[in-house]
Amino acid sequence: MALSDRKMKMLWLQGASCGGCTMSILESGASGWFDELRQSGIELLWHPSVSEETGAEALDILEAVRDGRERLDVLVLEGSVARGPDLTGRFNMLAGTNRSIYHWVSELAPLADYVVAVGSCAAYGGIPAAGSNPTDAVGLQFEGTDSGGALGGGFRSRRGLPAINIAGCAPHPGWIMETLLALGSGDLASGDLDGYGRPKFIANHLAHHGCSRNEFYEFKASAEAMSERGCLMEHLGCRATQAVGDCNQRSWNGGGSCTKGGYACIACTSPGFEAAQNYLETAKLAGIPVGLPTDMPKAWFVALAALSKSATPRRVRVNATSDHVVVPPTRPSGKRAP
Q1: How many CB atoms lie within 10 A of CB 310?
Q2: Closest CA to 88 of 80, 76, 100
Q3: What domains appear along the chain, each with residue ranges and CATH number?
Q4: Are 126 and 139 in contact (CB under 8 A)?
Q5: How many whole angstroms separate alpha carbon 30 and alpha carbon 13?
C-alpha cells in the first residue's frame, strides 16, 4: 500500500530547543495546523508541546512505537541532540522516561520510514552548539558542516533516505508542510536533497530573490543604520545573497520577511550560522565585505559595485539612508506621462 493511500503517522520530539519551530508550524494553513494535518491525512501520534497525552499516556505511545506495536512513518526532531556529558545524553532528558532524547532518537530513527530535522538546531546543532558547546549539541546527521551528528553520516531511514533537513531558525511553515506532503506522496527522494540534506525546493533559491530592497542592492545604495531603506549587505550584516531559502518569495504570516521588516538576513538556513560574531555588522577586509554573493568572484563584485555606485540615481541614493521615501519616482523629463 502506498503511503499516500493511508494516514501518515508522525511522531514529533523536541530536543535542545526554544520551541520556535513549533511556533512557526502553528501558523500553517488557513484554518490552523491541526486542521491542515487532518486534511492532509497526517496523524500526529504525539508532540510534547501540543498533545493532550502526558506522563504514562505519552510513555505508552513512545513504547508502542519502539516495540513495533505502532507504525512510524515520520520521526520529526525539533532542536539539537545534546549528547553530553560523555555521550550519555543526560543534559537533555525526556521527562518521565528516565531516558535522554539522544537515546530515544537513536532507538526510534531506524524504525521510521523517514527522519526529518525541523530547524537548523536539529539539522546542524544550531544555537545550542554555539561557542564552546558544553552540552555536545549536534544535529541528527551533521555537526555544523561536518557529516556525522547523532545518527552518524551513514544513517539511512527505512525508505533509504538520510535525515531530511528543513533548516531555518525557524523554518517557514510552508517548508515543513510541503516536505511532509512530498514524503506522503512519495515525491521526495535522496536526489531531491542538497549536500546538506535540505530539500532542493528550498535550497535552490536564495533569500535575496524577491527582496523588496533589490533596487538598492543593484545600485549598491546602502543603509548605514537600522530602520533605513537601503540595502543591508554593505554595512549591516545582511547575508541574503548567500543564504538559501525562498523567504522573500513566499513571505511569512501573510506578508513579512526579515529584510522587509528591516532586519538583516543572518543565513539561518546554513550550518554554522550561529558562529557569526555580529549579526548587525558586515565583516570586511580592506573595505570589501567578506561574505560576497554566491558564485561571484571578488574582482567582479568590486568592479560591479564601483560601476553601480557611479550610476546610482539621486532618488535611490537619498532614499537609501532614510526611513521613508524622500524622493519619489518621477517620469523622464521631456516625455508625456502615459
Answers
A1: 9
A2: 100
A3: 6-203 (3.40.50.700), 206-324 (4.10.480.10)
A4: yes
A5: 25
H or E, element range at 315: helix 314-320
- What is the grid cell recorded at 114? 523517514
Locate 131 and state its grid cell.
561557542
Return the C-alpha cell found at 329: 519616482
> DSSP 3-state assignment of 40?
helix
Radius of gyration of the chain (CA): 23
In Å, what is the CA distance from 28 to each residue of 23, 42, 176, 184? 10, 14, 9, 17
Count the Cβ atoms, other than its own, within 10 Å of residue 85.
12
Q: Say if residue 338's pLDDT is above 80.
A: no
- As given in the structure block, the three cell numbers for residue 259 are 529584510
Residue-wise pLDDT for 180-223, tens only, equals: 999 999 999 999 999 999 999 999 999 999 999 999 999 999 99
Measured torsion, CA atoms of residues 115, 157, 3, 120, in degrees rounded to the nearest 10:
20
Predicted TM-score of the model (pTM):
0.90
- What whole-number distance in Å separates Cα of residue 230 and Cα of residue 214? 9
